[in-house]
Specification:
signal, transmembrane, Na/Pi_transpt, cell membrane
């Protein structure tokens, strides 16, 4: 049994596909697939998608970055407001990682208390679900219009805010166009036995979680992972249980860059990054245990697998935030003891810095 785990990993899929390609070329009776064309289409679509995500993030940061910083700095009036602030900030920036990295900077600078940052982190996870809903809408056919409009705004306007909006719109168009290219590229795999056998193996939740975490670590974007999953589900390559497992794995993979952002910062900033990791790991573990219930809910919400995955993504993050929010202050106290200030072993005598008003 143990020997079957490796071929079903992401690397195992590549090996299987290469073997399947050679087998088909040798006349083995498999469906004919132009593997070079497929690989070029997949890589091209993925590059367009990731570049679009980068452009979108850049445009949104330029258009709303300072306002988001000010918004985050004032999210200290209770856990519910902090949660909503995280949702709004992540929706505006289209990246929970960017939101949390900004948050870590504010905590490190003493502009926000560590305990007040935890609800914002919970809200940022909810904010990431907006992009998955957009991907599931299937509006990629309008991508060229968005790209042209964004390019014209950048080229013709003399106002910086309008140019930033054009960059963001161009990014949205590139993201959707990249998804369209990806969808066309993987279409020949729908009936390929090698791929179908691999996907059956990935129906084991643990393998799906590992694949989702690894892919997200590789491309540094949980939104991109969800986009690829939704595209593959739309082509019938991924069934709901596999898509949910990869979705859960993406929640863990997205923690890497926020942990890196805590290196060399204050203990309060480190605790914020550790909380993000612990919250995602615990909620994913619970999600794996309850994955059948999550799948049942997803099937209830829609008849299409891409929409089911997007809706499950929303439900998972909403429930996780609702469960942990009432205990955020207690969790903050436990983390303060687990990660004490330098020179204060065990956390004795620690004090939370008083947040300074954001400028």
């Amino acid at each position: 049994m143990r020997r079957t785990l490796f071929p079903r990993s992401a690397l195992g899929l590549a090996v299987c596909l290469l073997g399947g390609a050679a087998w088909a070329q040798n006349g083995g009776g498999r469906p004919e697939v132009d593997w070079v064309e497929l690989a070029m289409g997949f890589l091209g679509g993925l590059v367009l998608f990731l570049f679009g995500v980068s452009q979108l993030a850049e445009g949104l940061r330029e258009a709303a970055g300072e306002r988001v910083k000010s918004l985050l700095g004032r999210a200290t009036d209770g856990p519910v407001r902090g949660l909503l602030t995280g949702v709004v900030a992540t929706t505006l920036l289209d990246s929970s990682s960017v939101t949390i990295i900004l948050l870590i900077g504010l905590v490190d600078a003493g502009l926000m208390g560590f305990a007040q940052a935890l609800p914002v982190i919970l809200g940022s996870n909810i904010g990431t679900t907006v992009s998955s809903q957009i991907f599931a809408l299937g509006v990629d056919e309008y991508a060229p219009v968005m790209m042209l409009a964004g390019l014209l705004l950048r080229a013709l306007s003399s106002r910086d805010d309008v140019k930033a909006g054009g960059t963001a719109l161009l990014g949205v168009g590139l993201v959707l166009f990249g998804l369209h290219v990806l969808s066309d590229a993987v279409e020949p795999l729908r009936d390929h036995p090698v791929v179908l056998d691999w996907i059956k193996g990935m129906s084991t939740p643990l393998l799906g979680v590992l694949a989702g975490a690894a892919f997200t670590l590789l491309i540094q974007s949980s939104s991109a992972t969800l986009g690829v999953v939704i595209v593959m589900a739309g082509q019938g390559l991924i069934e709901l249980p596999t898509g949910l497992a990869i979705m859960l794995g993406a929640e863990i993979g997205t923690c890497s860059d926020t942990l890196v952002a805590t290196v060399g910062r204050s203990r309060h900033a480190v605790r914020a990054g550790v909380f993000h990791l612990l919250f995602n790991c615990v909620s994913v573990a619970i999600g794996v245990l309850l994955i059948d219930w999550l799948a049942a809910f997803a099937r209830f919400t829609s008849g299409e697998v891409p929409n089911q995955i997007a809706n499950a993504h929303v439900a998972f993050n909403l429930v996780g935030a609702a469960v942990f929010l009432p205990f955020s202050a207690r969790i903050a106290a436990l983390l303060a003891r687990a990660i004490p200030d330098r020179g204060a072993p065990g956390g004795v005598g620690q004090t939370e810095p008083v947040p300074r008003p954001a400028e």
